[in-house]
């Protein structure tokens, strides 16, 4: 996996070019010299963890032939007060929509993601307590 991050030369804005030829813009807070035009790098890290977990949950439920229609993950994170300001707690709230989804199947998919498949969560769990809960919306 490759990525190149380049400072735009303007404030604290950076452009990341991924190995799959996608571009992500990052910016800093105004008090840090940024212009608040794009997500912060740590916000993208949190979003990546949510995306990784959601991807796993969808894939696991689909492979189990469950009628999943949607997955949303809301994340709440706390960071250390001192540098490096690593994540110390992250809570994932999954909202899984589908037809007659069984709570046991959703719980299993989330646990498999957390314990086995999601590399982002696995890395972040080295500094952060990872918790989760979920709700099912029958559609």
Automatic annotation (TrEMBL):
Q: What is this protein called?
A: OsmC-like protein
Kindly give the Gene3D superfamilies that the UniProt entry links to this protein. Answer: 2.20.25.10, 3.30.300.20
Q: Which InterPro entries match?
A: KH_dom-like_a/b (IPR015946), OsmC/Ohr_fam (IPR003718), OsmC/Ohrsf (IPR036102)
| Record-linked Pfam families | OsmC
